[in-house]
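The protein record quoted in full:
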Amino acid sequence: MSELDLQIPSAFDPFAEASTEDSGAGSKEYVHIRVQQRNGRKSLTTVQGLRKDYSYNKILKDLKKEFCCNGTLFQDPELGQVIQLQGDQRKNVSSFLTQAGIVKKENIKIHGF
């Protein structure tokens, strides 16, 4: 009888442990790469969701040099720092971020048409 009392926990929440594991440093923080249509064939690529400890200016400088395009940084009140590049650079930016070791491929979400 005493063995059964020890095996049945009275206040065990199986989902509490899973939620604390997900909220830690290993949680899935996605980097969103979007494309926006401008006039005609012109478009913009935005990169949002990079960690704050990276130097956005250095990443932007390397992206501009690598893809021969212009770009800028802007501060959004909801999204934080956002990198904006000229042209449709979605695939180029995703491959650059994975090869540089900034973001894993599983943590990149590409949006757009």
Remarks:
- The chain is about 35% helix and 25% strand.
- The longest strand covers residues 31-37.
- The helical segments are 2-7, 14-22, 56-67, 90-99.
